Amino acid sequence: MKKVLIVDDSLDIQASLKFLLEDEGYTCHGVVTPDAAFDYVSTQEVDLVLLDMNFTQDTTRGKEGLAAISQLMQIDPLLPIVVMTGWATLDLAVNALKQGAADFIEKPWDDERLAHSIKVHIEKRADRQDLVRLSAENERLKKTQRSINFVTQSEHKQRVLAQLTQLAQSEMNILLTGENGTGKSYYAQYIHEHSRRADGSFISINMGAVSDELFNSELFGHKKGAFTDAKEDRVGAFTLASNGSLFLDEIANLSLRSQAKLLQVLEERKYTAVGSHKVLENTARIISATNSKLHDAIANQAFRQDLYYRLNTVEVEIPPLRACPEDILPLAERFLSQFSHNYKKPLASLMPCAVKALKQYEFLGNVRELKHMMERVVFTCANAKVFASDLALNNASDQSLHSTTKSTSVIPENHDLTLDEIVEQALFSRLAFHGGNVSKAAKSLGLSRSAWYRKMDKYE
Ligand SMILES: Nc1ncnc2c1ncn2[C@@H]1O[C@H](COP(=O)(O)OP(=O)(O)OP(=O)(O)O)[C@@H](O)[C@H]1O
Hints:
With 460 residues, the chain is of the alpha/beta class. It has helices at residues 11-23, 34-43, 63-75, 90-99, 111-144, 155-168, 184-193, 212-220, 237-240, 256-268, 294-299, 305-311, 328-342, 352-360, 366-380, 388-391, 403-406, 419-433, 438-444, 449-458, and strands at 3-7, 27-31, 48-52, 81-85, 103-106, 174-177, 202-206, 221-222, 234-235, 245-249, 270-271, 280-281, 285-290, 314-317, 349-350, 385-386. The strands form 5 sheets. It has a 5-stranded parallel beta sheet with strand order 2-1-3-4-5, sandwiched between helices. Helix 2 (34-43) packs parallel to helix 3 and helix 13 crosses helix 15 (366-380). The longest helix has 34 residues, at 111-144. Mean pLDDT is 86; it is low at 395-412. The structure holds adenosine-5'-triphosphate (ATP). Adenosine-5'-triphosphate binds next to helix 7 and helix 15.
């Protein structure tokens, strides 16, 4: 319920204002001096102030009221103040509005005019608060988003990027398809950054994680008190992405009920926050993504065809990593550098056997698999050299901290290694297996500590 603070030294006036406003659905609180009003506004939530202009006996010029307006605005710059006086002059009205008052009403007041003014100014305050919240949220998001820096030497990927750069300039909705982990969300952000909307926000939302119950609240926002858990106003994804881009990831995971709601917004370009009557316009550009075969889902009636056509003004398929083998190495090196930095480890480098193994690997999990592999390697390798066995390519799915190193107890399957390389690999991997403990690693290979160090020196 919205709260009105009545500041008037006449208790009779306070009582009749309360009578009127409580009937209109507001809660009211009355104080008799500007000082009490300052205290109240500093500590309580107030949606509008009704302010008398004269408080000391025999004053009619409104000076106290004018001073109170400035002070109240300092405490809460968005607070609407409707001033009321029985001694209205045009000068005073002009001065009050100049100080920042929202409206000026003469006593005795007209009930209808006063109620209308209060309603309008409380709504305006809510709009301004939404705007402030929205800009703050947008600023926060921009600070957390790093801009996309594509690593690609593959002609195939370069063609896709060129196509996306061109499409980014249009206002078309784009559907990105492709296997798991190909980087569809990465490409979605790339489209946003190359579009005319780049100054707006890029808002990403995983539709698989949005339940039917939360769909309206997540996508359109809600007003405080709209439902039991709505403790605060919430700005929805469509509003956050106004004049920017809204990325709907895992779109095939949306239930039919939520698909219908999404379709309605896309068709009508209008939506309403839960608990609000205000109709908002959708100005976000929609980029969506899926790794499912939407045609199959449509045939099985699990995905609406009309929604599919709304989302895919144009459809772009992101290639799997195995279709861009030139990218494997540069991406691997980039991830190694990133994770070496994150884990404060020396920069890890790929030994020739590891390079070869990576190039031959199929990467069914695409860039994500490569990224996770490099993270694991950086974390588990005791030294900065990465050998083929450290990649644990044959049993990537059941990695544990030790599995990489256990696999080195047998001679690697790669038949291009020299004897030196095999020995080097065995030393480093055994060290990793024993958690960096040289004595244990040396003993397990039948070496003394000094023999161990001599060999380590040889392999730097
Ligand atoms: N070109 C790239 N450069 C650097 N990192 C990338 C690149 N492409 C993808 N990644 C990284 O790979 C991981 C997987 O990417 P992303 O989540 O975008 O894949 P996806 O295609 O959306 O997968 P899914 O269909 O499973 O949701 C992310 O951690 C992303 O940062």
